[in-house]
Amino acid sequence: MSYNYVLLIERISLLPIIYTNIVAAIIFWAAYLIWLIPEMVGGSRQNAKTLRKEASVQDRGSQATLLALLWVGIGLNFLFAGLLQGAAITWHRTAIFIIGVVLILSGVALRWYAIQVLGHYFTRDVAVSSDQQVIQSGPYRFIRHPAYSGTLLTMLGIGLATTNWASLIAIIICTLVGHLYRISVEEKALSRTIGQPYVEYMQHTRRLIPFVL
Fold first, then answer.
1. Residue 155 lies inside a defined structural domain of this protein
2. Residue ranges in the chain assigned as alpha helix (H)
3. What's the structural domain count of the chain?
């Protein structure tokens, strides 16, 4: 057995199992599409122009920034997983892959549950109205932006499922930066419009992770 052949086998073994195992690939891409398809449909329908014509749009480019960074993170995730085998996660790869898929689906469930609780106030662009109420039911009892937490959980799952440290770091950093800018724009708009009720709500809740962030 030649050295080059052995080296090739070692490199293949460090690729994500979704690149080398058909069953894992089917499972992963099914979970990925469960996230992606509703997002694409929602992106075309859940905007202030359609759902909240009375609202004032104060987006400040946050929607475009968030989407751009999200897709950059996803792209780097898959690119690094294929090119940077030295950063591969080699510890219990199958278990980490399974955890990743579970997190993808858990993030989708949390996001759409939060959207349902928020009801007609939810739009993809930042929009506020003078009669807007502070929602504090469901996941909003614990965090201010559970729909964004769901997306972060899904991206964490995608990063773990590709079992590569560089991929995981890239997708989390891009997603987090995009969401933090979006949250900053959104909270300023809500604080200006709703006033003290929202300021008080901010004082006893975290943005994304209960008791942490």
1. yes
2. 3-13, 17-20, 22-45, 48-51, 62-83, 93-118, 146-161, 165-194, 196-203
3. 1
**Which domain, by its residues, includes 25?**
3-203
Q: What is the distance between the alpha carbons of residues 58 and 70, in angstroms, rounded to a whole number?
A: 21
What does the pLDDT read at residue 123?
Answer: 87
164 phi and psi angles, rounded to 5 deg = -145, 125
SS (H, E, C) 80-113: HHHHCHHHECCCCHHHHHHHHHHHHHHHHHHHHH
Q: Which two tokens stand for residue 25?
A: 């690939």
* pLDDT, tens only, 61-83: 999 999 999 999 999 999 999 89
- The CATH number that applies at residue 82 is 1.20.120.1630
Cα 126 to chain centroid distance, Å, stands at 17
- Residue 127: CA atoms inside 13 Å, Cβ hemisphere, count? 18
Residues near 36 by beta carbon (within 8 Å), at least 6 away in sequence: none
Low-confidence stretches of the chain (pLDDT beneath 70): 1-13, 49-51
Evaluate if pTM is beyond 0.85: yes
Task: Give the C-alpha separation, 93 to 19, whole Å.
Answer: 13
Residue 190 and residue 104: Cα distance in Å, rounded?
29
Distance, in Å, from the CA atom of 94 to the CA atom of 16, rounded to the nearest integer, reads 10
106 inside domain: yes
